[in-house]
Design brief:
Length: about 400
């Protein structure tokens, strides 16, 4: 009996040793994947915001080397990672797919061809609407999935658009497009027509900020061409040559307020950046675009631009056109969270998209005092006069839509 018990004990101890060895081997194997720390470091340096940069890289240990997989649109980031691994004599196989993808066959650019293209988080119409792009917006095309294109807008935002929203083109075609004269549509909402009269067949709708090639003039209309070669007419009363618009740009407190008021009552739409519907940062983005300045897309990105003018509710320091940001202040346990933005218009009031585009009041004595947003106020940033801020695109200094300005 003792012999049997002794044998059983030995077997039990052997099992424990085997389990311990196996666990140790797994931990050792995990620790041996030394590439992980380098990947994390490079990503934090080059692509801290996945909304505007792609560095989706991982590694797998295979024998005495690592296989790097994933994709990126940042050649410098991939080069840095490889240099770091080389310096540490870490053997690897580079299987990272670089974007734009080779199967695009050179068509790595595109121009939005409809009034408002809905850009989504994934290549399907049921996916989240993350932003929009208006007619004539030039974009980078990074890859394709079925009938969907993964694109990057001028503000850096990454999203998917279906084939009906964009005309893919190559570098030469982009240069030719930029060399053409353009028209910008200024009315919040309108139409283009097959003939130069309002009773003609509609070609499509158009929203403020839509940009088209200028072909000619006839009566009170401009003859225009779409990126997919459709031709139409838009009323001169609601549009103007892009060159004239740029030359007459003079962003000011007054012009920002005037633009903001043209969109009062537009309904709130998560991801919207047009007169068809807009979210809070889409609204401020549209206001500034129509005054020649491209803001970053989201409120949490816009708050990084400009200069701070207040964080203590000293609203007497604010000027019309300043952007107010709202959310949750940082605590010991949680970082700051920016969730809303509006634009100051003076007299203790700001205009913003929340439910719809409307004016709110920060005067505690007023009947329409906005207690909710007052309580979650974070700070105010000034955009006007910040021409050197790299987070902002000044269209008067940019060839984004047209060369030779």
């Amino acid at each position: 009996m003792k012999t049997i018990l002794r044998s059983a004990s030995l077997l039990f101890l052997s099992g424990l040793l085997l389990v311990g060895c196996n666990e140790g081997a797994e931990v050792k194997e995990e620790k041996e994947n030394v590439t992980s720390s380098y990947i994390i470091e490079v990503k934090s340096q080059y692509a801290p915001d996945r909304r505007v940069a792609i560095f989706d890289v991982e590694s797998e240990k295979q024998g005495d080397q690592y296989v790097l997989r994933g994709e990126s649109n940042l050649p410098d980031a991939v080069k840095t990672l490889k240099n770091q691994l080389d310096a540490e004599n870490i053997r690897y196989v580079d299987s990272i797919a670089m974007l734009p993808a080779a199967d695009l066959e050179g068509k790595t650019h595109g121009v939005i061809q409809i009034s408002v293209a809905n850009l989504r988080s994934r290549p399907s119409h049921s996916s989240e609407l993350v932003t929009q792009a208006t007619l004539g917006t030039p974009v980078k095309v990074l890859k394709k999935n079925g009938s969907w294109y993964y694109i990057q807008a001028p503000d850096g935002y990454l999203a998917w658009v279906d084939y009906g929203g964009v005309t893919p083109i190559d570098e030469d075609a982009l240069k030719q497009w930029r060399a053409t004269e353009k028209v910008i549509y200024m009315e919040p909402y309108g139409f283009s027509y097959e003939e130069p009269n309002r009773d003609a067949q509609v070609v499509s709708d158009v929203v403020a900020g839509g940009i088209l090639e200028l072909v000619g003039e006839e009566k009170n209309f401009y003859k225009v061409r779409y990126p997919n070669d459709r031709e139409a007419y838009v009323e001169k009363a609601y549009s103007m040559p892009y060159r004239d618009w740029i030359e007459n740009l003079s962003p000011s407190e007054e012009s920002l307020i005037a633009t903001s008021m043209t969109m009062k009552g537009v309904p709130y739409l998560w991801g919207g950046t047009s007169a068809k519907g807009m979210d809070c940062s889409g609204y401020t983005k549209t206001i500034f675009f129509l005054n020649g300045i491209i803001l970053p897309r989201d409120a949490s990105q816009q708050i990084q631009a400009g200069i701070e003018v207040d964080s203590e509710k000293n609203f007497e320091n604010l000027q019309p056109g300043d952007l107010l940001f709202f959310g949750r202040k940082a605590t010991e346990d949680a970082p700051e969270r920016v969730v809303h933005v509006g634009m100051w218009i003076g007299d203790n009031k700001f205009i913003h998209a929340m439910g719809d585009v409307h004016i709110s009041n920060f005067d505690p004595e007023a009947e329409d005092f906005d207690q909710y947003n007052y309580d979650r106020y974070l700070r105010t940033k000034r955009i006007l006069g910040q021409e050197q801020d790299e987070r902002l695109i000044q269209l008067a200094q940019s060839d984004l839509f047209m060369d030779g300005l």
